[in-house]
Each structure stands twice: as C-alpha cells, then as structure tokens.
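Input (structure):
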C-alpha cells in the first residue's frame, strides 16, 4: 500500500475532465497574475507622472508653458492629457472670439470630462477579465472537486 501522493502524480492519475479543469484554472491564474502585475506597474508609472505634473501645475507655472510641454511629451501622464484637452478647447474657443467666460469654461470642462473618461477607460482595461475570473473560478474549481470525488467514490 505504498502510494505516491505527490501533487504531480495525483494530477496525472486524475480523469481527463479534472486535468482539463486544473489546466484551465492554472492558465487563467497565470493570465490573472500577469494582468495584476501589469496594472501595479502601470499605475505606479501613472501616479509618478501625475505627481510630477501636479507639482509643476501648482508651482504657478504659466499655463501656456504647461500646455506646450504637455504637447511636446510623447508619453504624457493622464493628468497632463486631460489638462491639454481642456486647454486646447479653451484656446480654440478663444480664437473664435467667444466672449462669454462661462461658454469658454463650459467648453474646456466638457473637453476635460471627455478626456477624463478616455483615460479612465484606458486605465480600467482588463478589469472586467479579473472580475469574471474572480467570480467564476471558485465554481469551476468546485466542479472539478465534485467530479473528482464522484469518480473516487465510483472507483
């Protein structure tokens, strides 16, 4: 009655359905961890870029200089892109000789809201994948467990 009870041996002796479930869970787990670590590093970079822009903004730098600097950077932070879209809309409306200050500000605010939503959508990519995996994986694992126990009792 000397049986090898290592994980590797148990997986090899499991039925095909259990092996498929384990393989699927492992693949989805690896994909999830890659998304998680990608998000961690991306958010750190975004936060650093936003902090840098915010320091420059609140230091009292000229808005036209900030706008020129934001347009010159190929990898501007999300906060810089939101500012640049608002400033671009403000300058465009001012060129059209819109005299009403509330119209100028509403246009800039509207452009900044649209840009904010685009930035948020870009940041939230793959979060629905993580949510789906988090909600479905326990049931898939339970299915594999029940399947394995059924076959153990049958055997």
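Output (sequence):
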């Amino acid at each position: 009655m000397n049986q090898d009870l290592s994980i590797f041996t148990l997986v090899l002796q499991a039925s095909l359905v259990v092996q498929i479930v384990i393989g699927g869970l492992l693949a989805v787990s690896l994909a999830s961890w890659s998304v998680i670590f990608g998000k961690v590093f991306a958010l750190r970079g975004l936060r650093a870029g936003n902090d840098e822009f915010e320091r420059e903004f609140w230091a009292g730098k000229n808005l036209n200089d900030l706008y020129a600097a934001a347009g010159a950077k190929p990898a501007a932070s999300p906060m810089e892109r939101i500012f640049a879209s608002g400033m671009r809309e403000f300058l465009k409306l001012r060129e059209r000789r819109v005299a009403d200050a509330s119209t100028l500000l509403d246009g800039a605010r509207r452009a900044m809201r649209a840009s904010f939503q685009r930035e948020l959508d870009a940041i939230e990519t793959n979060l629905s994948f993580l949510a789906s995996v988090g909600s479905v994986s326990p049931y898939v694992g339970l299915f594999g467990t029940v399947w394995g126990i059924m076959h153990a009792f049958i055997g």
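Notes: Residues 35 and 127 are 8 Å apart (CA to CA). The first helix runs from residue 7 to 13.
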